[in-house]
Structure formats: structure tokens, C-alpha cells
Write a structure and sequence with these properties.
With 248 residues, the protein is an alpha+beta fold. It has helices at 9-25, 36-46, 95-103, 131-137, 174-182, 186-194; strands spanning 29-34, 51-54, 64-69, 79-86, 112-117, 122-127, 140-141, 144-151, 162-169, 198-200, 203-204, 217-220, 224-234, 240-247. It has 3 domains: 6-69, Ribosomal Protein S8, Chain: A, domain 1 (2-Layer Sandwich); 79-151, 2-Layer Sandwich (Alpha-Beta Plaits), CATH 3.30.70; 162-247, Structural Genomics Hypothetical 15.5 Kd Protein In mrcA-pckA Intergenic Region, Chain A, CATH 3.10.290.10.
């Protein structure tokens, strides 16, 4: 089985072109934010042929910029941290609201990194090229005054929060995991896969028999995202114990 499928051929061609440009022309190339699957493809294709660096501002970033060079450098990812200040009594903030307001400025999604929200602080990691637009243009959200402020660092713990669930399954097949977790039939789970509505680490899954592994992030359209937290030993009945976290 190929490491990538037909739907990813355009991206694979782009990565190979970037590699050739770096090697043949001695260029330093900075990408926009990459999702988990894109990071995986960059790492696989570029290998050790070039120097590949990924940003990691919070220490647990999901979206990262990559910097590619034919020689060792001190990477500058041109990333800005924007803190969102607002009155929590009047505004219930979430990822969708923040992302929607930023993208309403005609900003591309891959210019925006992780959005970090806790009880105390809210941060948005963005490409430095767009920071001034966000700071100057977004003054209200849902009619509530807000302020985006550039800061030097992130304060607080922003580890993902999960609603955990334990499954006892016959195998680690993706259709079985989806069926059991979301309480839908095996047929419904397979239909979601056939419609390309299921991704593992941002890669579309084409086969019902694909096995999951620890730390896989599974996205199911109209259902949400879950993460395989732990795959334990078999229970007394012979079933596999799988601990899963649903992002909240």
C-alpha cells in the first residue's frame, strides 16, 4: 500500500517541487500552516535530503509551519501570538466563532494556526503576515467589544480536553471503532467511510478494514473528532480494551 493515495498526488508533487527548489537553488522555504497529515507527508517525502523544521509555539501545536533548507539554520517561522481580550460575562467564546470572524476578513485558513482557549485566557497563533489585519479589523465579536493583543508567550496549560469513553471491541478496524463509539450500525459507519467522511490524522480513509493505533485522531463529518488514547490488553472475554477521548 502506498504511503499516499490518489487524492494527495497534487500535494505530493508540490512537496517534491519544493525539495528540488531547495536543493538546486539553495533556497529557504517557509510554508503556511500544515495539518497533521500534511506534516506527515512533508516528513516522509523530504526525509533526510534537506533540513526540515516544524514550529511548535505552545509545545503541543497541531497546526505547524515548516521551514525547509539545504543547510542548518536557526529557524524563524514568522509566527505571532495574539491574545484575545474580552468580557467573559457577555461573550461565550469558542473555536468556531473565532475562526469564522478571522476568515470573514478573507484570510485563508492555512494562515491561522491553533486556537487555544482556557477558563483564563484565549490565544490565536497566526502567520505574522496577517496579524495587523486581525488586530485592526476585529473590534467586536457577536456585538461584544474585543481586542486582539500581540504577546510574546502563552500563559497557562492548554492540553486538549476530552470526554473519555472505554470500548470493548473485537478488532481495531476503523468501522468497528466508529460504530461502537457513536452508537451507529456497522453499515452506517461503512457508509461514512465510503462517502470519504472519515479521516485519520487528516488523511481520508478509503478502506473499512484500516486499523487504528494509539494517538490517532479520527475525524467524522457531522459527528466530531476523537482520539485513541490507549489500546490496552484483551479483556477476559477476549475483546480489546480501547480508551477514546472525544474533543470538547
Amino acid at each position: 500500500m502506498s504511503f499516499y493515495d490518489e487524492s494527495e498526488e497534487i500535494l505530493v508533487h508540490k512537496i517534491n517541487s519544493l525539495k528540488n527548489d531547495v536543493l538546486n537553488n539553495n533556497k529557504i522555504i517557509l510554508t503556511k500552516f500544515l495539518n497533521l497529515r500534511e506534516q506527515e507527508l512533508y516528513s516522509f517525502i523530504l526525509g533526510k535530503s534537506v533540513n526540515l523544521y516544524f514550529s511548535n509555539i505552545s509545545g503541543n501545536d497541531e497546526a505547524k509551519r515548516a521551514l525547509i533548507s539545504s543547510f542548518e539554520i536557526k529557524p524563524d517561522f514568522k509566527i505571532s501570538i495574539l491574545k484575545l481580550n474580552y468580557n467573559k460575562r457577555y461573550l461565550d467564546i469558542n473555536h468556531r466563532i473565532i475562526l469564522g470572524n478571522i476568515m470573514s476578513l478573507q484570510i485563508e485558513r492555512n494562515m491561522i494556526g491553533d486556537i487555544l482557549i482556557s477558563d483564563k485566557n484565549t490565544y490565536v497563533i497566526v502567520s505574522s503576515e496577517i496579524k495587523d489585519v486581525i488586530i485592526n479589523e476585529i473590534k467586536t465579536i457577536n456585538h461584544v467589544p474585543v481586542e486582539f493583543e500581540e504577546v510574546d508567550e502563552i500563559e497557562g496549560d492548554f492540553l486538549p480536553k476530552y470526554k473519555e469513553k472505554k470500548l470493548f471491541v473485537q478488532s481495531l478496524r476503523i468501522d468497528l471503532i466508529i460504530s461502537n463509539f457513536y452508537n451507529i450500525s456497522r453499515t452506517q459507519a461503512q457508509e461514512l467511510i465510503d462517502k470519504k467522511d472519515v479521516k485519520i490524522n487528516q488523511r481520508v480513509i478509503a478502506s473499512h478494514i484500516t486499523d487504528v493505533k494509539e494517538n490517532d485522531v479520527i475525524s467524522v463529518s457531522h459527528h466530531g473528532r476523537i482520539k485513541i488514547l490507549n489500546i490496552g490488553q484483551n479483556s477476559r472475554s477476549g475483546k480489546i480494551i480501547v480508551e477514546i477521548g472525544e474533543y470538547v
